[in-house]
Amino acid sequence: MKGRREVRSPFKQYCASFQCKKCGNSFSNAESLVKHLREVEKKRYVKVCNCGEVFFLMRTYRYHLQVKHGVVTSCPQCSICGSYFQDNYNLNRHMMTHRSAFMCNNCGEMYVSSCGLQCRFCKRVFEQFGKLVQHLRVDENYIDVIELCTICCEVFYSSQAHQDHLIRFHLASKNQCPICSVVVKHACNFRRHVASHSMERPFVCSHCKSSFKRKDHLKDHLLKCNRQ
């Protein structure tokens, strides 16, 4: 009708084509893209937003809705600055910037560490993990592993000790990762998954000096490295 103004959807500019980023094929609707991703690309969880963004994890989709589109979700929120995060792990890392404030993964209560983060060499106490790391690297010339339990604010100087601590004290339910809350299907893979959150890379390639968190990743690398 002449003179009638078209009402535009905020999603319209993105919905002309739903594209698979892996193979490059485009689809006319979200249902076709989801079917392709599940049957061809073998993705178990697929969620397509109205704006065209594709997600393979519930927490990233939930975070996208909250931050990009203002949809109220159950994303963890910083009680100090109001920022949203995908999970409690990322929230707790952020809370380190607010004078060592933390959220308990079990009860959801916010608390501030009273003892701070202590250097095991000089016993000096720091309010932020980054300051402690800087002190250890510069002042104490410590070059090995430094890891922080983001649940209870305890510092570890061994990835193995950190993993044992998480499993012993912060395991809310069987085979559920205390860091990212992912449920590991097989118990034999649980410790391997927890280790994936560590920064330590103990498995080193003797040819190119590349390092890996897991032994099987090193083996896969060696097969390629030996061919070169």
Automatic annotation (TrEMBL):
GO molecular-function terms, A-Z? DNA-binding transcription factor activity, RNA polymerase II-specific; RNA polymerase II transcription regulatory region sequence-specific DNA binding; zinc ion binding
Q: What is its main location?
A: nucleus
Q: Where is the C2H2-type domain?
A: 18-40, 76-98, 175-202
Q: Which domain of life is it from?
A: Eukaryota
- Where does the signal sequence lie? none
Per its UniProt record, what PROSITE patterns does this chain match? ZINC_FINGER_C2H2_1, ZINC_FINGER_C2H2_2
What keywords would UniProt list here?
Metal-binding, Nucleus, Repeat, Zinc, Zinc-finger
The places in or outside the cell where this protein is found are: Nucleus
Identify one Pfam family in the record. Answer: zf-C2H2
Q: Name one GO cellular component term.
A: nucleus
Q: Which SMART domains does the annotation name?
A: ZnF_C2H2
Tell me which InterPro entries the record gives: Znf_C2H2_sf, Znf_C2H2_type
Name the PANTHER family for this protein: BLOODY FINGERS-RELATED, KRAB AND ZINC FINGER DOMAIN-CONTAINING
Please report the name of this protein according to its UniProt entry: C2H2-type domain-containing protein
